[in-house]
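As a next step, we paired sequence with structure tokens, yielding the entry below.
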Amino acid sequence: MEETTDLLKKWENNFKDLQAKDAEAKAAGSIVGRFIYEPYADGRAYYVVIKEKKETVDIKVVTGIGDDWRIPYWGEKATVRKSYVLANLKRRDALEELFKENAV
């Protein structure tokens, strides 16, 4: 069985990779490669945008970063309204900017 510290380090590295890919996509002006999250149970379910269409986007669950929650009505993959994803990204970007500005 994997040691707890090794597992936590693996999850941390996987999450850093997810954040790096998200930052690359954001810098390129793309939502493909960005991630969204939804509160679920005692944590969050993370999904990455894998395809952008005119009114919708395809998302896929992200695993290997913790509890690996899935939203029951989304499952492993789903197609969701693009406006919903854009609002989720806007909210996350605004929070990150707020915390960055207030960091000492």
Observations:
- The chain has a mean pLDDT of 93.
- The longest helix spans residues 4-27.
- Residues 79 and 95 are 25 Å apart (CA to CA).
- The longest strand covers residues 43-52.
